[in-house]
Amino acid sequence: MLEWLGAHETLLWWLGAGSLVMFAGSLAAVPVLVARIPVDYFAADRRPRGRDIARHPALRALLIVLKNLLGLVLLPMGIAMLVLPGQGLLTILVALLLLDFPGKYRAERWLVGQPAVFRAINWLRRRRGCAPLRAPA
Fold first, then answer.
1. pTM for this structure?
2. CA torsion 38→21→63→53, rounded to 10°?
């Protein structure tokens, strides 16, 4: 094991630097993204229809593919950060939020419905001057 670590020292430095960048990026991005969530987003039983960023179907499909690819890249990085320095759990959570899969909205509502998570999200929103989220039904 020590031989492998010594032979791949450059890779370990790059992984450490990537972890630090992800950590700093998550500290900056999470409050901004939480503030952009509509107040009633989690109040409905079904996912609210979002505004179409791309009206052309081909562009919309491309954006969906790119979003899912980013999620697929972040997921193994988050798993690696569970043992490397960095925000492993937060990176995994961001990856899961980017990916499209059945039952995702129900899982998001369950997570936001947890009292500690709900309080933390609303605390971040208050700090950014946004109205608190309405609790999931």
1. 0.67
2. 30
